[in-house]
């Protein structure tokens, strides 16, 4: 039985219909689920990974993007080790509430929370509304620790997102 050196709480957040749940499920099972039910409140997943020889357990908190659940977000982000802000590259409106999301993070978190900015649905590149360059500019403005575009459908960059975030968390822990 593997022994874990660390357990990290990872929070997935962003507007509804951006692909957060699909991303989490693809990472967990390596399968693409076409018809996923809308998240009500928060969904909680566990996955063990090995990064740089360390066994790490990730608690993935998939937070509902609908506005009616946003009041719950402050209590769920507390204690997070890292976060993934997700938007949909085919829907410019999926960035409409970015300031609201980040305002909550800044208000609730009194430490440097690593955040990866993720653009989902790259398999729909022909429908792209948000250029990579524009999204990278926004990520930089929000002081994101990384930027990745991915496809949960094809699996492109899915594991890279979680590995990058875990590496940043481990590196920050060693600096402290």
Descriptive overview:
By secondary structure, the protein is an alpha/beta fold. It has a single domain, classed as P-loop containing nucleotide triphosphate hydrolases (Rossmann fold, 3-Layer(aba) Sandwich), CATH 3.40.50. Helix content is 31%, strand content 26%. The chain is built from five helices and six strands. Strands 2-3-1-4-5-6 form a six-stranded mixed β-sheet, with helices on both faces. α4 links the parallel β5 and β6. The longest helix is centred in the C-terminal third of the chain and has 18 residues. The protein is globular, with a radius of gyration of 15 Å.
Count of distinct structural domains: 1
Overall radius of gyration = 15 Å
CATH hierarchy: architecture: 3-Layer(aba) Sandwich
**Neighbour order of strands in the largest sheet:** 2-3-1-4-5-6
In sequence order, what are the helices and strands, one letter per element?
Answer: EHEEHEHEHEH
| SS-derived structural category | alpha/beta
Report the principal-axis shape.
globular
Unreliable stretches, pLDDT < 50, 5 or more residues? none
Mean pLDDT: 88
**Strand coverage percent:** 25-35%
């Amino acid at each position: 039985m593997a022994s874990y050196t660390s357990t990290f709480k990872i929070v997935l957040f962003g507007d509804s219909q951006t692909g957060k749940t699909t991303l989490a499920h693809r990472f967990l099972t390596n399968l693409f689920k076409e018809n996923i039910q809308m998240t009500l409140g928060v969904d909680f997943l566990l996955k063990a990974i090995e990064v740089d020889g360390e066994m790490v357990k990730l608690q993935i908190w998939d937070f509902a993007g609908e506005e009616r659940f946003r009041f719950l977000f402050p209590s769920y982000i507390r204690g997070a080790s890292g976060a993934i802000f997700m938007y949909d590259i085919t829907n410019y409106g999926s960035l409409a509430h970015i300031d609201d999301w980040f305002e909550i993070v800044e208000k609730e978190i009194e430490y440097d929370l690593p955040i990866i900015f993720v653009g989902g649905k790259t398999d729909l590149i022909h429908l792209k509304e948000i250029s990579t360059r524009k999204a990278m500019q926004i990520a930089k403005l929000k002081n994101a620790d990384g930027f990745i575009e991915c496809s949960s459908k094809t699996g492109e960059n899915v594991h890279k997102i979680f590995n990058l975030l875990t590496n940043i968390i481990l590196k920050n822990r060693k600096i402290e």
